[in-house]
Amino acid sequence: MTSTTTSAVEHNTTTTAATDGGTLSPPALTSTHSFRASRPEIVGPEEPVAPFPIIMNGPVQRGFGRGGKELGCPTANLPEESLPAMSSVTSLGVYYGYAQVIFPPSSPSTPSTSTLAPPPSSASTPPPSSSDPASSDPTNPPPAPPSNPIPSADRAVQPMVMSLGKNPFYKNEHLSAEIHIMHTFSNDFYGREMRVVVLGYIRPELDYTSRDDLINDIEIDKHVAVRCMQRPAYGVFHDRETFDALFT
């Protein structure tokens, strides 16, 4: 894989694999204006090379809750036990690929919160029929009204950008994989299984002197990820059958 070198940061993607918790890691370099101004739109080779693609999956965990609120970039965290597949063969940094949230086949979305119409008056309501088992048997209530189904786009394979690291700007102590799926979901999906295919590397993990600088780099990361995955050898993983085959 290629290395990224500017007057602001220098990082080689073949450095020692990422480690967690008790192992000391070198301090992250600080992103500067000159680094952000010189970032390329497309990075890496024309097709995935080892160790990519990297396969990860697990139930979505609750993180710090600041991605959406503070950074405008909501993220989904994978459990700690799923990280070695990535951390054992890569270094800390930002990566791109595809992700999919797995919903049960008949999973409904959250019921509407709209105000229900008042029940009809007793004068217009016919008495329960003795031949209707639902009305005469309290253990057999009538079926609930149907809810809206999960939109097909929520179930689809979507592009993602992932940060593997300790987020030095927020001084996290433990390694995490924070994944931003580039799709607006109709509901949250905590606890659902998420499948991730990591296809390439964007940049090293960096520290920042301001939140605005961090947000600026995140937006560039998303743009670079989309551009990189427009290349044919990466775009094939967007196909549902190709994606699913990696998890069978």
From TrEMBL:
Amino acid composition bias (Pro residues), ranges on this chain: 117-130, 139-149
Keyword terms, alphabetized: ATP-binding, Flavoprotein, FMN, Nucleotide-binding, Transferase
Leader sequence segment: none
Name of one Pfam family that matches: Flavokinase
GO molecular function: ATP binding; riboflavin kinase activity
SMART domains: Flavokinase
Domain called Riboflavin kinase: residue spans: 49-230
Pathway field: Cofactor biosynthesis; FMN biosynthesis; FMN from riboflavin (ATP route): step 1/1
Region described as Disordered: spans on this chain: 1-34, 107-154
Compositionally biased region (Polar residues): 1-12
EC code(s) of this entry: 2.7.1.26
Domain of life: Eukaryota
InterPro entries, sorted: Riboflavin_kinase, Riboflavin_kinase_bac/euk, Riboflavin_kinase_dom_sf
Biological process (GO), any one: FMN biosynthetic process
Family: Belongs to the flavokinase family.
Protein role: Catalyzes the phosphorylation of riboflavin (vitamin B2) to form flavin mononucleotide (FMN) coenzyme.
Protein name: Riboflavin kinase
Organism: Pterulicium gracile
